[in-house]
Amino acid sequence: MIDSTAQLHTSTGDDAAERKRVVFASSLGTVFEWYDFYLYATLAPFFAALFFPPGNATAALLASFATYAAGFLVRPFGALVFGRIGDLVGRKYTFLVTILVMGISTALVGMMPTYASIGMISPIALVILRLAQGLALGGEYGGAATYVAEHAPNEKRGLHTSWIQTTATLGFFLSLIVIGGCRRIFDEAAFKEWGWRVPFLVSLILLAVSVYIRLKLNESPLFLKMKSEGKTSKAPLKESFGNWANLKIVLLALFGAAAGQGVVWYTGQFYALFFLTGTLKIDWQTAYNILTVALALGTGLFVFFGWLSDKIGRKKIMMAGCILAALTYFPIFRAMTHYGNPALETFANNTTIQVTATDCQMHLFPNPKTKYSDCDRVQDFLAKRSLSFETIDAPAGAAPVTKLNDIEIKGWDEKALTTALATLGYPAKANPDDVNTPMLILLVFIQVVYVTMVYGPIAAFLVELFPTRIRYTSMSLPYHIGNGWFGGMLPLTATAMVAASGNIYAGLWYPVVVAGLTAVLGLLFIRETKDHQLQVV
Fold first, then answer.
1. Domain harbouring 404, CATH code
2. Which strand ranges, in their side-by-side order, compose the sheet holding 353-357?
3. pLDDT, tens digit (0-9, with 9 covering 90-100), for 231-244
4. With a threshold of 0.85, does the pTM exceed it?
């Protein structure tokens, strides 16, 4: 199962210049693909109301995150489809196809008519495009990681594949730069109306560059030799998942490494940004600057921890990242509130909010027939303002009663609720003078460090777990379930947990629990892989 003979050497594999070209070309194309994928998450708060039925902002945001999550949910299926093709036909051909699918579907998002123009066809088409993006990304990562690893020397596999690990963050970083540039060019109204489409259309330029670069690559020498010897797998799906010995390793890779890595990645970057802008009401420029600086400071650590994993091993670095994240997320995010919007923190400490009501529901997929109860409207009002509250069950049919300290408001009365908050001193936005930018950069940077610890070594770790004939298929599935299902579901799950509980920190329980379980399983059952060598079969 684990390759243990001396690594295959070929004229291209031994050539340092060729290896650099392989790493650069694979990484650059993957950066562009991640850029495409993460545009949606960053821009969802802007276009959520454009593609879904109006009436409830929280429901529209949840629906946009649910559509965002759909792209992640389908990623494992992309891993199966394209992983099989990659093990049968070749690495290079497969990730040429994946980048074409990704680039075209992303550009089409930028051309989508709104709900006001075509009704329910709009959100349905948006879901279809997200599914296409997810399928493409499901085939991309395994191909790029496998391709680079099969060119790398044994003693530097962690270092070489760590460049692939930088691509997700660099793609996110690039998306922030392009979006930020567009927001500076267009005024706020123009950006919300149509300017948000421009970053999606830019993907056509990136697609052309990516295809040009990848057409110039050679196939993996290991795959070529395996194919020439007639040793390619005839049924990679069956060999990967129909064989218990290999399936057991797939499951260990998923629950003992990839799941925790996925939630740590998405918490430290996406959820941190959403918390700054959506929860703490910090203006977008400041929030983007905070995240951009933190990412710039931390991106080199992907390569550092990849290099370090070649020296001391992959497992201990990844598990340490999961443990640190699980232990510190709650204090880190509370500190973000303290340094980002101290007025909100003070208001929360001085104000007790209770909603006594019945018929409260979460609406993940609103449609024209969705009806919102008075309780739904009250909870939406409070949630949009990042207010923690307690919901108490009332007798069936009773009108909701909202109590803010000693102020009591019966039924759904937006004007009365707004007046009550103003009376109590609620801060509608973070005061720019109160935002401690250096401390917020530090707090986000700490989360980025966790990301680099769990993500930097994982490509080499997964590649080394499986034999060449089924490597693309076997490694892609646990990675994309861990990242696509456990990680990709984080924005939706965390937002839903906050909405359901009325506590702005409740969503953190999801990454804390998953990262903690991964650390336990990884420490107990995962074995070190850094000294394993790659061969043809």
1. 3.40.30.10
2. 390-393, 353-357, 401-404, 407-410
3. 666 667 777 777 78
4. no
